Amino acid sequence: MKDNEIVLGVTVGEIAAAFAEYKAKYGKQPDPDTALQFPINLQQVGLNELIKNYQFSSYDSQAYNNAFIELVSRGNSHNSSFIYDTLIFTRYQRPFSRYMGRMPESTLQIGPGGSLGCEVLFCMSGVKETFTLDPFPLMTFDIENYMESLKLLFNTIKLFEGINGFNASTLNTPEYQSIEKGVYKVGSGVIRHVHPRMFEDTGFGDESVDYLFSHATLEHVRSPLKCIQETKRVLKKGSITAHCIDLRDHRNFDAPLGFLRESDASWSMLMEEYCKHDASGYMNRWRASEFVSEFEKNGFRILEVTPEMKVSDEMLDSELPNLDLKYKTYKRDDLSVISVFIVAQKI
Predict the structure, then answer these.
(1) Strand boundaries in 247-324, DSSP class E
(2) Are residues 20 and 110 in the same domain?
(3) Which domain holds residue 197?
(4) If 0-12 CB within 10 Å is exposed, 13-18 middle and 19+ buried, where does residue 245 land?
(5) Of 105, 171, 253, 347, which cross-links 154 as Cys (Cβ 3.0–4.6 Å)?
(6) Count of domains for the chain
(7) pLDDT tens, 117-132?
(8) Domain for residue 336, yes or no?
(9) What is the DSSP code (8-state) at residue 34?
(10) Predicted confidence band at 22 (pLDDT cuts at 50, 70, 90)?
């Protein structure tokens, strides 16, 4: 209803004013049987009568459901949303559970972006120490907001209790606290954000980490080989590392192979200028085969290589004549892969 619409001779604006006046006078909302005084009309109207005569807009379930689906869909792809964090956790929890059969005691994520939500979930799953490392400080993570969002999510999921034998009794948020900037305690686990540190030189001790992973990070490092060697150094023997690598030209995702048109010298100059505005935007142009090869050469056993995105044959055909001579020597299948998921074990 609009403010000037009338219910039993009283406008909605007058009803709101009467509610506010009653709450200010008595410190509480009026009960259903309360008779409210409306000075303008010099009349009393029972709240129950107002409710009976108030015309509520009809509930449109399809519109509501569509809005919810859109919210979840955006959350899936928007870094720093708690939905996105859940997807990252699920993706990187699976390799360790599959190949090691237990949760690691310590994890290290390289380049967490704006959120430590994945680390919260690792702590809740039994990891004792979770580390994140980045050249830049973490600016946006609000653990209070994250835990409240998680609590709401859990309460919603609990509505499915009993369906297909689902038991939601353990879906509860643990006690948590912010110890200092970048350090949080979640249940019995601890999260530490380490910065400024580079992947090429983490500062971690030899064989000090059970599990190292990154998401859309390895394509941005200046020396992928040094990063692979550093991964071997800090991982314990037999431990797992997992990486999703986005191999596209980030300047224009509609032309994902565009940067392969440049020679190494030309690309180096372009990146020098490009990174003046955003140092994290560097792109090394390594292809999937190069990452796999260097992991194998540097003491890893490849457990998974999964191409997650490929360009179409038509796009590849249109790009091949324009590629730098270096990339024209690459196999067609290798050039077509523009996103790859790699899981490797330190031998």
Answers:
(1) 300-310
(2) no
(3) 66-246
(4) buried
(5) 171
(6) 2
(7) 999 999 999 999 999 9
(8) no
(9) P
(10) confident
- 92 & 210 share domain: yes
Task: Output the domain CATH number for residue 169.
Answer: 3.40.50
- CA 133, CA 26: separation in Å to the nearest integer? 54
Do 102 and 30 share a structural domain?
Answer: no
Both structure tokens of 120: 């919260």
Residues 135 and 233 in one domain: yes
Nearest by Cα to 37 from 29, 52, 47, 28? 47
Residue tagged 């559970």 (tokens): 97
How many whole angstroms separate alpha carbon 244 and alpha carbon 56? 49
Helix %, strand %, coil % of the chain (to 5): 45, 25, 35
Can you give the pTM of this predicted structure? 0.80
Neighbours of 229 (CB within 10 A): 15
- Is 155 among the domain residues? yes
Does residue 47 sit in the same domain as residue 156?
no
233-286 per-position pLDDT tens digit: 999 999 999 999 999 999 999 999 999 999 999 999 999 999 988 888 999 999
300: in domain: no
- Could you give the CA distance from residue 262 to residue 257 in angstroms, rounded to a whole number? 10
